[in-house]
Predict the 3D structure of the following.
Amino acid sequence: MDLKLTKAMKDFQWSFISLAIASLSHLLLRIVLGRELGPSGLGVYTLVFTIYIFGMQFAAFGIGAALTKYVAEFCDDLAKTKEYISSGIFGSIFAGTTMCLILFLLSGVISVNVFKISEMESLLKVTALCFPFIALNKAVLGTLNGFRSMKTFAILDISLNTAVFFTSVFCVLYFGMGVLGAILGFVIPTIVLGIISIFFIRSNIILKNNLLYYISSFRHILYFGFYAVLGNSIGYIYAHVDSLMIGYYLNENGVGYYAVATIFIQAIILTPSAVQRVTNPAIAKNYAKNEYESILKLIKIVIVRVFLISLLVSIFLVVFGKTFISIVFGDVFLPAYQPLMILLIGYTVYSTFMSIGTFYASTGYVNLSYKISLFSAILSISLNVLFIPKYDIFGAAMATSISLVIMTCVHFLLIRHFLNEVFVVENPVYL
């Protein structure tokens, strides 16, 4: 038991370190871009980056999440594990290349017809080039997560985020390339690290001329990935529709102010995101062994501790948020403080579910996650349409927080239903 706890703690530490560095890199980069590009330039960058992250959901096609599940389940069957990994790697390359072509061809429509910002077209075309490589990277990370090789996972993740930061700063400050430099800052490292990452799992990749070898496992990955990508993409719309709709209803300046507010939200979601990387394979493994009581115990411990940490961070930001915005970004970005206060409410509550957010996928109910995400997206879009025209960026924050609180309640009601009535644990669950 002590060994298991030690392993779990080490996994969490590496996961937390990688996410902490990612958040720090994200924060420092936004500081540089905010000061160098102003609200307008930061707004354009945020829109392009948001579209990139959304497109990445389809480029990766949920293969990374599928590999985490199947590698964790079949960790004792090396031959089966290699079969799934090989199929997942080749599938990710195909999915990433397809998404690259789609974004490249639609870049003009998105830029001119949707956001009415013509300069975004060339930026989106450059962004499209890295999709095959980020898809490959996600498949590798999913495999490492399934093996619970969190140290290697963290090293790859840290390398990518630090490379993005330094490349972006170099292009923007040294070469004076503006928004294009910021875009190249994440495109170039993504391509390089995507190629390098494959070497970390090369011993688990099997090359065969017989396609039948890959079909059976890839069919399972594709099924899982289909629902995962639906859930993730819809979930991403749900989480970022506020920024996109600010860009649609208002302008890039509004997106820039709101981007600063959401940067500080990273302090709230850091811990639950790190915890989720550990609970994901843990829940999948316990579910495969029918150890439902262990799942219940894990969930109870995690949500209480994560909520307390998130609450303390929120109180700190309420007290010092305005000062931080003024010192770090300058007084020109002070309009970001008001929406930040509203966002803290929703994300503090939602952080509890984030810590076990892969529950449906880990227990084999990945098809349910996209249905919930669809409902979440519809709710969030409706609230944003209602509030943004009337309350501007403050309305976007209101819409996001309200939807986050509602969906957290929905998720825990469903999880309680599964544990009490589907999995049938001995003691009733009260979440």
Notes: Residues 87 and 219 are 9 Å apart (CA to CA). The chain is about 85% helix and 0% strand. The two ends are 26 Å apart (CA to CA).
